[in-house]
Amino acid sequence: MNKKRWIALGIAVVLFAFSIGFRFISTLFSSDLEAMFDIPQQQYQEEVIEEGTGNKIAVLELDGVIQDISTSSLLNSGGYNHERFLKKMEHVGDDPTVDGIILRVNTPGGGVVESAEIHDKIVEVQEEHNKPVYVSMGNTAASGGYYISAPADKIVAHPATLTGSIGVIMQSFNFAELAENIGVDFNTIKSGEFKDIMSQSREMTDEEHDILQTMVDDMYADFVQVIVDGRDMPESEVRNLGDGRVYTGKQAADNGLVDDLGSLQDTATMMREDFEWPNAQVVEYKSAFEWNSFLGGTVQSMFGSEEANLMAIQELLQQSDGPRAMYLYSK
Known about the structure:
hydrolase, globular, about 325 residues, Protease-4, serine protease
């Protein structure tokens, strides 16, 4: 072969190698590495926060958008994992060495179903295992974050915590006018009048709006009832507070949505005093080392926590083409 053919062959080899490498990286980002390499899973690790003897208080962290999607995705594995959190709650509930539980909540909320599942798990731990559950709110504990906090025996917020945002939201985009301006036609074949309800390709009808509003109202009523039951507040008061606005921790304490103000350490002190466990040990329950979480956390650290949350919210919104109701506060 002449020189030009050798050069062409070399370029082809480089492009082929690049293609293989790109496909490998793409697969890696969307794969469950533990399952791929059959890596055995350990249970949980205990990190001692405050030394003590006798009673034990377990701290569980709920950080990120509450969602049950793409839990095996590398980009998502460094954040909130719904299945893992529910199992962790179940574990500390069953653990006879754990006397009390503190949930460190830092979330803008998320899915309606996922929030309800966490709420039910908290109530289950309280009723079946007779263990107190306190909530320590971080920067944000809004919408679904407040929904899951409502049944807690005590809610403690930082004065600057953003909480509240009591309500349900359902959103979609409408590209009909833009599509008309650029000459794009949508062809839809459907089996029933409302099969493409909340379609992005046309305006919503009044009847469709009423159908969806009824759904949102029903879910909002459930949210209100959760607070009525959990906080022992009159329904009229909850509805008055629950107009979708956010409150600071101090405002929430003033209006009865939280019980006290303080840090995670303050919350542990309150539990010790309330149950007369002066020497209780405080430990944080963490999932054992996992490749997905390790690599996912590394990837997310490149973008920052705010960008990671935005990606999670975008994924939550785009989970399906149909409307999705959410307990979510987003700025």
